[in-house]
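Would you mind giving me a polypeptide sequence along with per-residue structure tokens?
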Amino acid sequence: MGLAAIVGIASRPSTKADDGKPRYVLEAAIPKKFGDWSELPQTGVQVVNPQTKELLDKIYSQTLTRTYVSSGDGYRIMLSLAYGDDQRGALQAHKPEVCYPAQGFTVHSNSNAELATPFGSIPANQLSTSLGQRKEPVTYWFTIGNTTVKNRLDKRLAEIRLGLTGQVPDGLLFRVSSLDETPTRAFERQTAFVSDLMRAVSPEDRAKLGGLVPAPQ
């Protein structure tokens, strides 16, 4: 009965997760240049956005899509972020392994990964995909609040924790990909990109983007 009461309370949150705080803005949070990477404006490389604009507007309150290039060897990473201030029910972010096939891609592999950063590891999924001659390995994860979620149970527990304080669960889909015929190389470069980005953003943004919250002292 106690558990049912907790779930009942969590299912009726009324306050957005960021109420009372400065509005979270993807454009301001993500630097256009960091480490060895800089934004490549108006690139001819198409970043896959599987949903229509109408669906994106319904699911997410903000989206950000950029392509970055390494000054060292010209390697390119495509970054796609989608933030929703209400991730309950039908407003849940869609998984790339569902959305990529909807665009005609074939998913050849789907595996779990732990991305090492100086601030802890990020649990992620890594896909090997293709569309004709386009080979596109993908790394992605979801956060609810400041927690990275691996599955529906993780998501529900994060929602309950927010719900107990009357907050509507906000969430973020973080996705990087690259055009690369060698998935292992692509995943290594994507992990390095993520690590460099986490070094460059604030502690608050690391928590929102990757669930990287400092351990209690």
